[in-house]
Input
Amino acid sequence: MRILYISNNSDYNYKKCPRGSVAMPYLFHKRGHEVLALGKKQLLHFYSFYRAFKPDVIVATWIPSGFLPVVFKKLGLIKCPIVHAWDDYYAEQMTKYRFVSKALPGPIILSHQPGSFCPS
Output
């Protein structure tokens, strides 16, 4: 299988197993798949890499890198499936500096819900 892997990392070394989401291209390559790993520096030339490599699937691990293939797919320029590989670490990273509310036990106040009508 030919896999086009897009991430925010700049360098890939298939000889040494890295950790985290960067390990995915290494593992794909080790299992016999052809992998073309693009970093954020090559993202502007994504479509030319896509046409030259002709992948069976695109794997995106970063929001901007996932947006560009989806736009091209909506325009009908890309025919292969796009997989967004955003793991739990991504969610932790996004909520590190943002407050995430947690539900508390008790009744729900309908006037506080979006789209609700509260007669006065």
Notes: Strands lie at 2-6, 34-38, 57-60, 82-84. The mean pLDDT is 75. The chain is about 30% helix and 15% strand. The chain has one domain: 2-91.
